[in-house]
Design a protein that fits this description.
heterodimer, A: mainly alpha, Arc Repressor Mutant, subunit A, 74% helix, B: elongated
Chain lengths: 311, 88
């Protein structure tokens, strides 16, 4: 279910693979119910004693269905432990794909709930790991020491609370993706980039500085250029060898450098410059600048001052 | 049994129920993922609710609910080595 939930968050088309993942649970659950039905009263009492943490003594033919039931229970735990590791790996891959999608879609993907998604997944993993640890200690252990029950009860409740909290506050962006894909389906894909399109892209996006629009989406640019998302995305990838977000950041940083070189910092505060270049915050500006240029805007300014002093 | 004991054993299921009600009934949206999270909370509610008979020493009910853990397991991974503990 965790895996299916993450899939719903990050994919526009959800596949039925999760149902196969759930199949072992259904089969083992039915087998356990079947075994429970054939237990007689003494065997059921025997099982209750075992579940209270008593040693499993006096094994005889009468306890065979009990052993079968407990074996099924053990197999189910083992199966699901393996499944959880598998689905956690799948989930991380899905999140990577989601981040890639975001980079191809938004100019500022950091503002689109990646953090919440990470918190949700971390919450799921923590809940699972914590459950394993608590049950490694054993439920009967807590039965005999009720005051210690406060630890698993409260910590699991806190984890569930935050899982619900972050899940509730997560703003879905896959609707935007779906919209973009629907647009793609309506327009035939061209493999050759026409001169008109290239000139249009250069004029409207680069020369007219459309990349400075805050929170620019690839679909907005598609509308400006009268093209579809896939076509534009492929053009950017092939021509600039990067995704939509990287291109925007690169152009914005280049634009900010021109300003920093030409105008003294007294005239422009970095905050204003970040806003002017379309960055959503000063932090994003700093991070992007450092990534693209290898130094912070502050370090760049100091370097400029040094050069000016040497002259 | 003290009141705090009842509170403790019903706490995880209450939190799940709270989120399930909020996500499925009170928050009306068309967000598939949030709806699904609501259903996950329902499963969590049933799963943690089924612990209560165990901690109330009603083992005959708990035995009948054993398969519920199996079915609820993929949602909230739990109870790996209960058997190891009891058999060992």
């Amino acid at each position: 279910m965790y895996h299916y939930y993450v899939r719903l968050l990050v994919e526009t088309k959800v596949f039925s693979i999760w149902q196969r993942l759930y199949l072992p649970a259904v089969v083992l659950g039915i087998l356990m119910y079947g075994t429970l039905l054939i237990l007689n009263n003494s065997e059921r009492e025997n099982l209750e004693v075992i579940l209270q943490g008593q040693p499993f003594a006096n094994l005889n033919a009468e306890t065979l269905p009990v052993i079968t039931l407990l074996a099924l229970y053990f197999i189910s735990r083992l199966t699901f432990s393996i499944l959880v590791i598998y689905t956690v790996i799948l989930n991380f891959r899905l999140i990577q794909q989601y981040q890639y999608q975001l980079s191809n879609y938004y100019s500022d993907p950091e503002n689109h709930s990646i953090k919440s998604l990470k918190y949700i997944l971390t919450g799921m993993i923590l809940t699972s790991v914590y459950s394993i640890v608590a049950n490694g200690i054993g439920v009967p252990f807590f039965l005999n020491r009720p005051f210690l029950l406060i630890i698993p009860a409260c910590s699991i409740s806190i984890l569930i609370f935050f899982l619900g909290y972050f899940g509730n506050s997560f703003h879905l962006v896959q609707l935007d993706f779906t919209h973009g894909e629907a647009l793609d389906d309506t327009i035939e894909m061209e493999l050759v980039f026409g001169e008109v399109f290239v000139a249009n892209f250069q004029h409207r996006f680069v020369d007219n500085k459309a990349f400075l629009i805050p929170g620019l989406k690839i679909t907005t640019l598609c509308e400006m250029l009268e093209t579809n998302r896939t076509y534009l995305s492929v053009y950017i990838n092939r021509t600039y060898q990067c995704n939509f977000c990287s291109l925007i950041n690169k152009l914005r940083v280049e634009y900010s450098i021109k300003h920093l070189e030409q105008v003294s910092i007294e005239k422009y505060s970095l905050n204003y410059l970040a806003e002017m270049c379309g960055f959503s915050s000063l932090n994003t500006f700093y991070r992007t600048f450092q990534k693209e240029y290898g130094m912070t805007p502050g370090q760049f300014l100091k370097q400029q001052d040094k050069k000016a002093a040497e002259k | 049994m003290h009141a705090w004991y009842y509170l403790l054993i019903s706490l995880p299921s209450s939190v799940c129920l709270g989120w399930a009600v909020w996500l499925l009934l009170l928050k009306s949206n068309k967000d598939q993922a949030q709806d699904f999270l609501g259903w996950m909370m329902v499963v969590g509610f049933v799963l943690y609710l089924s612990y209560i008979p165990y901690f109330l020493h009603r083992f005959s009910i708990f035995v009948l609910l054993l398969p519920v853990y199996t079915l609820g397991h993929p949602a909230h991974l739990s109870h790996v080595p209960l058997l190891c503990q009891t058999v060992g």
